[in-house]
Specification:
about 260 residues, alpha/beta, Rossmann fold, four-stranded antiparallel beta sheet, 9 helices, about 30% strand, globular, disordered C terminus, ABC-type vitamin B12 transporter activity, EC 7.6.2.8, ABC_transporter-like_ATP-bd
């Protein structure tokens, strides 16, 4: 069953066209990974889905056009996790996660709100950090808290903008494992901008490859992560090993320099 339908979506900053006639679908309990070089439109698309930006075309949630929905209703349905370190708050971890309940709170915080926050803290094993100042956490810890805040909204869709950026290997795997587990446990859908192709191949259900604001290709990782597509999209020569999932080894950029992450 389709959860999100993106139809003929375009977006411009002034005369600068960022997204050009995008069409995609995201299924129930599915993770769609957005990959592509810097400036390809991944973050802009996520912000359009969250209605932070208002594109041309239509984005439907369970068949309803998001442009016809109130902001409070969208906030109850869609949880947004920004890039690591992009939110500095003078609050404790518990208070930060409680902010995710804001779309549901009328006059005061209810016992149910506190129960949900406590449950999310336990699910993500954040008990030891609950009374810590958010601003004093490491990058990996902050990212887990921001995911917890989004989950506290009880959304049907989770949007994540490069959730593993600036994290070490351990925290990259931990964050991606949490996202995968929460999608399965909570039966939600996710759209995730991913920088690392190997993490994308391992954890997402479907890929959309963006270049210059267009969908270059969409499908499963095994069919899309090929040396030819990586060369065309990233201008990088790579070897792709077919293990359980594709594993990309960058060799060199097409300008002759060694490729790096």
């Amino acid at each position: 069953m389709v959860k999100i339908t993106i139809q003929n979506v375009s977006f411009s900053y002034g005369s600068n066209l960022i997204l050009n006639d995008l069409n995609l679908v995201v299924g129930d309990s599915e993770i769609l990974g957005l990959v592509g070089p810097n400036g390809s439109g991944k973050t802009t698309l996520i912000k359009c889905i969250d209605r932070i930006l208002k594109p041309r075309g239509s984005i439907l949630l369970d068949g309803r056009d998001l442009s016809s929905m109130e902001g409070s209703e969208i906030a109850r349905e869609i949880g947004y996790v920004p890039q690591s370190g992009s939110s500095a708050m003078g609050t404790t971890v518990f208070e930060t996660i409680l902010m995710g309940r804001r779309p549901h709170i009328s006059w005061r915080v209810s016992d149910r709100d506190l129960e949900i926050v406590t449950e999310v803290i336990e699910l993500l094993h954040l008990e030891d950090l609950a009374m810590r100042d958010f601003g004093q956490l490491s990058g990996g810890q902050k990212q887990k808290v921001l995911i917890a805040r989004a989950l506290a909204q009880e959304p049907s869709v989770l949007l994540l903008d490069e959730p593993t950026s600036n994290l070490d290997m351990k925290h990259q795997l931990e964050v991606m494992e949490i996202i995968r587990e929460m999608v399965q446990r909570k039966s939600i859908s996710a759209v995730m901008a991913v920088h690392d192709l190997n993490l994308a191949a391992r954890f997402v259900d479907k890929l959309a490859v963006l270049k210059n604001g267009r969908i270059w290709a969409a499908g499963d990782a095994s069919s899309l992560l090929t040396p030819d597509i990586i060369r065309e999209v990233y201008s990088v020569e790579a070897v792709v090993m077919q293990l359980e999932r594709p594993f990309v080894i960058p060799i060199r950029s097409l300008n002759g320099g060694m490729a790096c992450e």
